[in-house]
Amino acid sequence: MSWFAKIYLSLFILLGSVYSHKTYENTVFVPAQEEVSFKMSLSKSTLGINERIRVDFVMNKDGDNFEPPSFEGFRVVMGPSQSISSSWVNGVRSFSKTFSYTIAPIEKGRFKIGQARIEIDGEIYKTNTEMVTVTDAVKKPSEEMTAEDIANESLHLVAEVSKENPYLNEKVTVVYKLYVGSDISVTNFRAIDNPTFNNFWNQDIPVTQYTFQSGFYNGKAAQFVVLKRVVLYPQKTGKLTLEPLVLDITAEVPTNRRDFFGGRLYAQTNKTVTAGKRSIQVRPLPEQGKPASFNGAVGSFDFFVKSSKNILNANESLQATVEVTGTGNLKLFSLPELKLPAALEVYEPEFKEKVTSNISGMKGKISNEYTVIPAFKGKYPIPEVTFSYFDPSLEKYISLQSKPILINVIEGPLPSSESTANNPVLNPVVEKQQIVSQNEGFGFIKTKTKLQAKNLRPFFNSSVYWMWWLLPLLIIPISVIFSRKRRALKEDKSGQISKKAQRLAKKFLSEAKAAQNNKEVFYIALEKGLQLYAKGKLRIKTADFNKENLQIVFNQKNIDPETVKQFILLLTHCEAARYSPFTSVEINADYSLAVHTISQLDSQL
To answer: CB 266: neighbour CB atoms within 10 A?
Structure first.
């Protein structure tokens, strides 16, 4: 190429560049409008039933009113967690917003994860749907296991039942133990569902300190802690089911990550554990050899009948006590009655109970204390009393008999002949006397009469006549005065009854009042007071004492429904207080309600 051609080409290129600069130097380049994107992505589409997947909902522009799908067939373990990413590259903005969920399958099968919705710039956008297949459990190397996987393998709640084939009213203990792997630690737990123990008399034995002990679970060494202990007495024969205890547990599990110094890092996770349902088969008590004096006592007992004094004067009082001591269902049977001679005045017995419940069952004593007052001089026997119980360890009935007691009344009036005749102790031999008929005992009818006329004054205008006229006028004010007196007497009597009822209520609830600062002791004493009152007043046997029977008996006695409702509510509070927190305000309110309710019941009864 000639030098002239080279100069011409260079000049052309230079002029082209100048023209190009002048044409675009004031132009601003605007990128094309980016299309809105809203998508769902899964960490995996096939997983075992013991695995979890992560679901991400990603959008390239911020929006509002996000609505996730229902996740049918799965439960949400974590989420939603939210993350936002925004950056500028060569003047171009990049934006991403993500909602993330971790979900776990609840059964095997093929499931569809539905669409999520969000509103962006006033428009509704929906994600795609995805199919997920859930297979049998898969085994994973420990380095691939998540914190939830480790917790699943290391936390187990077990209900240990002392006896699965007890007799009716025989003690059964249930101990709930949490087995924990050696490489994790439990930081907290709470009850989601407490068992109700239907058809059992039950007593919760509080665990005062949670201490880990060494043990074995499925043949492997593990540590365990006792979380709950319950003593049960079955009240029905046949197959009975124990509802499960369900707990939510917070645990710290090791991860594969290390800190700066090489120590292992721990992750916190929550797990729901359950002890599962347990069943026991309750045997009826044998009919063969059952004595007539048997009244439902099961255990091992001693029996006594004793008197506070054997020698006294007439109109002095003594205390005759029927007492049972030992271990067994002490709160679930009635004591034998004491039969005394008719010549003695006997008051309704006062029931006393000193029973403690621990992991070994009920232990202590119960008694009926009779106040007896002799009216006459003489000797009065307290006959033998028989008490029978069934010993489940020996599998046989045992009968105990008290010794007879003779009460000697040394001073006082002698009984009348009629009383003496009816009392074989005071007068064992009654001699017959010959009855002689005498004619002087008959009067004859007179056959002759002597009538005399009397001077009668006329009735009209007589004093009797005017008295009959004035009598109605006198009756009216007398009736008014009488009705007022009667009303005042009735009100005074009602007031006396009300005061008496208040004293009776406070007597039954005295133990509860003294324990108002201790929730467990207060509600045990409150329940005991309510039971003692109902059993004594309504003649309900301990074995028949339940809310349904109480409702029936109250209805039969025409008790006000509101009063009945209050009484049942108090019993419900006593049961709930074993598992739920109650404040001092609620405790005081329950005590006041109990005093008021027993007073109302006593007045109506």
So the answer is: 16
pLDDT at 430: 35
Q: What number of residues does the chain have? A: 605
- Average pLDDT (136-154) is 69
Q: Could you tell me which of 380, 407, 403, 383 has the C-alpha nearest to residue 304?
A: 403
Is the Cβ–Cβ distance between 313 and 196 less than 8 Å? no
Domain 296-422 has CATH 2.60.40: yes
Question: Is 461 or 18 the better-scoring residue by pLDDT?
Answer: 461
Whether CATH 3.20.20.100 fits 38-139? no
Helices 584-604 & 519-538 angle (0-180, nearest 10): 10
Q: Find, among 389, 274, 281, 372, the residue nearest to 335 by Cα.
A: 389
Q: What is the pLDDT of residue 286?
A: 95
| CATH no. of 147-282 | 2.60.40
Distance CA 458, CA 360 (A): 97
Residue holding tokens 């509802």?
Answer: 243
- pLDDT at res. 452: 57
**How far, in Å, CA of 563 to CA of 556, rounded?**
14
**Pair 189, 304: CB distance under 8 Å:** no
Give the DSSP letter string of 479-545: HHHHHHHHHHHHHHHHHHHHHHHHHHHHHHTHHHHHTTT-HHHHHHHHHHHHHHHHHHHHT--GGG-
pLDDT at 21: 38
Tens-digit pLDDT profile for residues 439-463:
444 455 555 555 555 555 666 666 7
Q: Look at strands 350-358 and 361-374 and give their pairing.
A: antiparallel
The residue-averaged pLDDT of 61-82 equals 84
Q: 0.90 cut: is pTM over it?
A: no
Residues in contact with 86: Cβ distance below 8 Å, sequence separation at least 6, in sequence order: 93, 94, 95, 96
Where do the structural domains in the chain lie, given as residue ranges?
38-139, 147-282, 296-422, 491-604
Do 147-282 and 38-139 fall under one CATH topology?
yes
Average pLDDT value over all residues in the chain: 79
- Residue 314's alpha-carbon distances to 372, 382, 407, 409, 412, in angstroms, are 11, 17, 11, 6, 5
Q: Is the pLDDT higher at 543 or at 496?
A: 543
pLDDT of residue 442: 44
Report d(CA 128, CA 115) in Å as an integer: 6
Of the candidates 312, 302, 278, which has an alpha carbon nearest to the alpha carbon of residue 363?
302
- d(CA 512, CA 591) in angstroms, rounded, equals 8
- Report how far residue 526's alpha carbon sits from residue 508's, in angstroms, rounded to the nearest whole number: 9
